[in-house]
């Protein structure tokens, strides 16, 4: 693999220094090929196998555009399960560590709604959650997406397999139409591309074939 170092990207110095601290020197293939589109604000469909570093693609995209001084939800990441949402939230907190006080909330089913609503009331910059629970918060008016700039559909293949399509469509309708939408999948995204075409605006497509 001859991927580039992160330092070729137009990221701020503190984000770059933190990546070095995390041991991220060179980009993985999906990062190398996707991040230029993401950082210029394009919508994206990205497919690469599990473990290839897709979280940092959207994580750096969200953080690049985030205004820490504006305490409002600016990034929303939808994940298929609670475990994945917690894992993604953890990775986003690590990536955001050098950017000051950035609040990342994980909102999934199986936990009571009220404490989550109270956390939202206190404010958050980034929300990671499962579609059903995010839909619940939108329905109750406890989650405000007025200031959202990045919507991420992570593991979109699994989310559609699990029957979350209608919830996702409802969430997309609650997002500002002027936003960046990033979609990630571990499998070849032909049917996903069809199903989600209305959610994305002229997306760049990056497919990384698995090496055998
Ligand atoms: P995916 O979502 O594609 O399954 P992840 O984003 O979960 O993959 O990343 C898999 C692992 O690789 C994580 O432990 C992550 O911290 C690590 N990782 C990601 N990008 C890099 C990189 N450029 N250099 C070193 N480690 C990385
Ligand atoms: Mg992932």
What's the helix count? 9
Hetero ligands: adenosine-5'-diphosphate, magnesium ion
CATH class: Alpha Beta
Mean pLDDT: 95
- In CATH, the homologous superfamily goes by the name P-loop containing nucleotide triphosphate hydrolases
Distance between the termini: 14 Å
Strand content: 5-15%
Largest sheet, spatial ordering of strands: 3-4-2-5-6-1-7
Radius of gyration: 16 Å
Helical percent range?
Answer: 40-55%
Shape: globular
Order of helices and strands: HHEHEHEHEHEHHEHE
How many independent structural domains?
Answer: 1
Class computed from helices, strands and strand pairing: alpha/beta
CATH topology grouping: Rossmann fold
**Overall number of strands:** 7
Overall CATH architecture: 3-Layer(aba) Sandwich
Family: Belongs to the DEAD box helicase family.
GO molecular function: helicase activity
Protein name: ATP-dependent RNA helicase
Organism: Deinococcus malanensis
Describe this structure in words.
By secondary structure, this protein is of the alpha/beta class. It has one domain (34-207): P-loop containing nucleotide triphosphate hydrolases (Rossmann fold, 3-Layer(aba) Sandwich). 42% of the residues lie in helices and 14% in strands. The protein contains nine helices and seven strands. A seven-stranded parallel beta sheet has the order 3-4-2-5-6-1-7, with helices on both faces. Helix 3 packs across helix 4 (82-96). The protein is globular, with a radius of gyration of 16 Å. The structure holds adenosine-5'-diphosphate and magnesium ion (MG).
């Amino acid at each position: 693999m001859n991927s580039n170092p992160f330092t070729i990207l137009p990221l701020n110095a503190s984000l770059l220094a933190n990546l070095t601290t995390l041991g991220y020197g060179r980009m993985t293939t999906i990062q190398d090929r996707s991040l230029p589109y993401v950082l210029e604000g394009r919508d994206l469909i990205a497919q690469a196998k599990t473990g290839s570093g897709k979280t940092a693609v959207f994580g750096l995209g969200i953080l690049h555009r985030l205004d820490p001084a504006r305490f409002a939800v600016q990034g929303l990441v939808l994940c298929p399960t609670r475990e994945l949402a917690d894992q993604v939230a953890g990775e986003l907190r690590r990536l955001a560590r050098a950017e000051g006080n950035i609040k990342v909330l994980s909102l999934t089913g199986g936990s009571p709604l009220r404490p989550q609503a109270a956390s939202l009331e206190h404010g958050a910059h980034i929300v990671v959650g499962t579609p059903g629970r995010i839909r619940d918060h939108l329905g109750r008016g406890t989650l405000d997406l007025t200031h959202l700039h990045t919507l991420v559909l992570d593991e979109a293949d699994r989310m559609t397999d699990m029957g979350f399509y209608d919830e996702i469509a409802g969430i997309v309708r609650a997002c500002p139409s002027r936003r960046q939408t990033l979609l990630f999948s571990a499998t070849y995204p032909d049917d996903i591309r069809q199903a989600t075409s209305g959610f994305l605006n002229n997306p760049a497509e990056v497919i990384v074939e698995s090496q055998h």
